[in-house]
Structures are given as C-alpha cells and as structure tokens.
Amino acid sequence: MREAAGQILQAHQEIDILLNNAGVMAVPEGTTADGFETQFGTNHLGHYALTALLMPAVLRAGSARVVTVTSTAHHMGRAVDPANPNLQGNTAPGAPTASPSSRTSISGSACSRPSRPPMPPQQA
To answer: Sign of the CA dihedral 6, 68, 100, 85?
Structure first.
C-alpha cells in the first residue's frame, strides 16, 4: 500500500476524488502480509491505509471527495467479534467472513469527521 501511495503521490500533487473499490470475497482462511484476516485486511484496512497515505494530496485539492463502496454481501455477514477480529477458526469456505458494512463503519469512523471545515456548496 505504501509503495502504491508513493507512486500516486509522485504523479499527482492533488487528488480530486479517491474511489476505494477493491475487494475479495469467499477466500480461504488466511492473512495479509501484516497478519490481518484476508478479507478484512484487503477490503477495509487496505482502503483505510490508502486513504490515510493519500490524505495530504486529497486535502490540497480543496473540494475533493473520498468514496468507499461495498457490496450487498453485508446482508449475509455477521457482526465482528471484538475478541476475535481476525475470525480465526471461525470461517466457512464460500461464506462472507463478517459484515462488510459493520467493518467499514469501524475502519471509516475516523474519516467521518472532517479534518477541516467543510467547503460550502458551489453555486451553479
């Protein structure tokens, strides 16, 4: 993630829109290089890390937006167990590991508060 962010920042001083849309689902139980459950690390922590690393360029853009999307698979998931966030020993092949929406709300909560006052709407 750091390498990708570095390449983006080298090429772009400002980022007007950042769309987080990568994801995996129904993968065998495993972990990312950092030791997080694969789906959680890829679909949520990866988005959060990339956004955090690119935030200086997003803020320089003035009226930039960050959009993170999910799928309707969150309807099939279950809540995150704080005692076992990596769901070790608690996944079934082909089943969503946890509710993407609940995980997105966890990883996105820090982004829900503006780091500066919101920009006024532009007049048409």
So the answer is: positive
